[in-house]
């Protein structure tokens, strides 16, 4: 018996390893230490703990990494470029923000890869290699702070720092599936950080745990103790979610349910951001594309941000580029040409106006909910990465916080499916990584060669996220809100997970509902056959909804197709035995077919379910008079 059990265990282990190797082969990317996130390892140790009764350092026990734009004394800051490193000396002082974190009890363990000169939001780097996205290894990690996001996503550090100019923290946070925070502009000092575009730059950070995100925020923002303020308004930017390539309902469902549970439905509101901005930011009209297309305030805001980004980047770094003549990446050179349609004054005016507009909307207690990005991360070396349209559209949503200076926090909850033998179980991504590392350490296999993450609410097997935006200066309010709401979001994620509804099923259900609504409209317009076609489409997409069959039966009755109506009503009742309309419609169909006793039974059943139903009562009386 024991030998048989042992043999079974070896068989299961062999099957598990075979699955691992097969998955690794399919990824077709060689595993690299630390997912290629680091360019240099170092140790900046925190000071000793103060003697009791003084409190311990607030970040005690945490380790972090920094993007390769932060200076560390004695180290060369390469700014994502080997040629930059060759032409610059080692730093003589450590960045103020890094020193503050170390003094606060955290240990800095290394510098991470950024896009060349922190210019792009893709996450690719020809000098140091592109870090491997743990959430989607065949796709870009997002930039410019790619290595910092990857280091957190892979569980190497507790938190990390990055630079966010046009999305450099928020985009990789979304693509890699970790929490990301861009604070209000200029509230975190940038001493000892290489500037990209100073009026847009902000020091942001990543974490897996919202409490860590908040602890780091309280230290960097130098926030004194204060009571937590509850939000009074959550505005869902419906038009922004409609722009997204991911279905809006799945993106907003977790947030809206969590908000309703914690704060009540009355705090939820909706806004068309395109229209709101267009009416309040006249300068954006001067930043339209000039090609006769329909005006889009978000696209205009994105172009204004891109112009400021280029203008200020050239002001900071063009002298070095002209003197050294480095082999700068084509995406940088191609984006530094003059844009005659825009002016610096118009772009700066737009920035002031959008801050005022969002401030008026959100006030002190409001939060705007938008998708972080418009879709999945592009695949590695994809053509769309070099497309101007892709870059402008991707920047549509990031431009809101970059141009207004508002704080923005990206939220996402991920799950990982693990295979032990032949049994698949669900666990937190971070817990799952630890489990597999421990289980397979003796086999000397590299974890990142075969892990496949499946975040809930995924699209095309990539993580998706939403972002919360508060007014400029509302950083504490936003960090406190995510601390309050995150546990409830996790609960809603678990509810969704237990329902075992896949993304494909959810998409089918949403399409089925849309088809049903079209059928209802056609029915009201007395287009009976058109209604039947729409209801039939809904049934094909989701055959588990009784209403679809019952509604189609109503249309069949109008066309005197009584047998089809009877069959549809029977299907509806099989799914939901308490659907009153199906009993009424089947009773009508059976009466017309001459099955009077069965018709009376159906009407009587409807009357039992709804004792006050006049239609059922009238039909029973009529039939009893005709056939006593």
Automatic annotation (TrEMBL):
Ranges in coiled-coil conformation: none
Statement: the UniProt record of this protein carries the keyword ATP-binding: no
Transmembrane spans: 6-24
Residue windows of the TPR repeats: 512-545, 580-613
Pfam families: Amidase
UniProt entry keywords in alphabetical sequence: Membrane, TPR repeat, Transmembrane, Transmembrane helix
Residues of the Amidase domain: 56-214
Keyword match Transmembrane helix: yes
Superkingdom per UniProt: Eukaryota
Protein name per its UniProtKB record: Amidase domain-containing protein
Provenance organism: Oryza punctata (Red rice)
């Amino acid at each position: 018996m024991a030998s048989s059990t042992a043999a079974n265990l070896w068989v299961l282990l062999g099957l598990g390893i075979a699955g691992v190797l097969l998955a690794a082969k399919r990824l077709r990317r060689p595993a690299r230490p630390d997912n290629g996130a680091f360019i240099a390892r170092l140790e900046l140790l925190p000071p000793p703990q103060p003697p009791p009764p003084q409190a311990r350092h607030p970040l005690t026990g945490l380790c972090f990494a920094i993007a390769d734009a932060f200076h560390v004394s004695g180290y060369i800051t390469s700014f994502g470029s080997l040629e930059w490193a060759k032409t610059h000396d080692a730093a003589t002082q450590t960045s103020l923000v890094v020193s503050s974190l170390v003094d606060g009890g955290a240990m800095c363990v290394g510098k991470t890869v950024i896009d060349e000169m922190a210019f792009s939001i893709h996450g690719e780097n020809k000098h140091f290699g592109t870090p491997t996205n743990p959430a989607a290894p065949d796709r870009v990690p997002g930039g410019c702070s790619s290595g910092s996001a990857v280091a957190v996503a892979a569980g190497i550090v507790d938190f990390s720092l990055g630079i966010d100019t046009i999305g450099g923290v928020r985009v990789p946070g979304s693509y890699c599936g970790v929490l990301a925070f861009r604070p209000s502009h200029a509230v975190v000092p940038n001493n000892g950080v290489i500037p990209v575009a100073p009026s847009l730059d902000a020091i942001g950070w990543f974490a897996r745990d919202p409490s860590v995100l908040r602890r780091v925020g309280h230290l960097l923002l130098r926030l004194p103790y204060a009571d937590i303020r509850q939000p009074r308004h959550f505005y869902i930017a419906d038009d922004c979610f409609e722009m997204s390539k991911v279905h809006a309902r799945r993106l907003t469902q977790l947030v809206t349910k969590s908000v309703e549970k914690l704060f009540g439905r009355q705090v939820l509101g909706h806004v068309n951001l395109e229209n709101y901005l267009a009416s309040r930011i006249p300068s954006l009209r001067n930043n339209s594309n000039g090609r006769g297309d329909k005006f889009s305030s978000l696209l205009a805001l994105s172009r204004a941000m891109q112009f400021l980004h280029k203008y200020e980047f050239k002001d900071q770094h063009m002298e070095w580029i002209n003197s050294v003549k480095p082999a700068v990446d084509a995406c940088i050179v191609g984006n530094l040409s003059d844009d005659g349609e825009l002016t610096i004054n118009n772009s700066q005016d737009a920035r002031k106006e959008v801050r005022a507009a969002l401030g008026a909307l959100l006030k002190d207690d409001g939060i705007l909910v938008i998708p972080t990005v418009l879709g999945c991360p592009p695949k590695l070396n994809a053509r769309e990465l070099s497309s101007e349209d892709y870059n402008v559209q991707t920047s549509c949503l990031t431009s809101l916080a970059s141009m207004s200076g508002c704080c923005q926090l990206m939220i996402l909850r991920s799950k990982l499916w693990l295979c032990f033998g032949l049994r698949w179980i669900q666990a937190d991504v971070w817990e799952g990584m630890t489990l597999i590392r421990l289980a397979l350490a003796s086999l000397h296999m590299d974890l990142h060669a075969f892990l496949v993450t499946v975040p809930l609410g995924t699209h095309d097997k990539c993580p998706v996220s939403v972002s919360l935006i508060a007014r400029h200066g509302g950083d504490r309010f936003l960090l406190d809100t995510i601390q309050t709401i995150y546990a409830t979001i996790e609960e809603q994620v678990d509810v969704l997970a237990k329902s075992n509804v896949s993304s494909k099923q959810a998409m089918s259900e949403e399409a089925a509902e849309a088809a049903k609504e079209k059928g209802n409209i056609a029915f009201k317009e007395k287009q009976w056959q058109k209604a039947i076609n729409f209801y039939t489409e809904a049934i094909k997409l989701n055959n588990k909804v009784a209403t679809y069959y019952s509604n189609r039966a109503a249309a069949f009755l109008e066309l005197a197709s009584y047998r089809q109506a009877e069959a549809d009503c029977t299907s509806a009742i099989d799914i939901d035995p308490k659907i009153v309309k199906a009993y009424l419609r089947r009773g009508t169909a059976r009466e017309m077919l001459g099955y009077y006793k069965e018709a009376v039974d159906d009407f009587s059943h409807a009357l039992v379910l709804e004792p006050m139903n006049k239609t059922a009562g009238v039909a029973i009386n009529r039939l009893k008079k005709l056939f006593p």
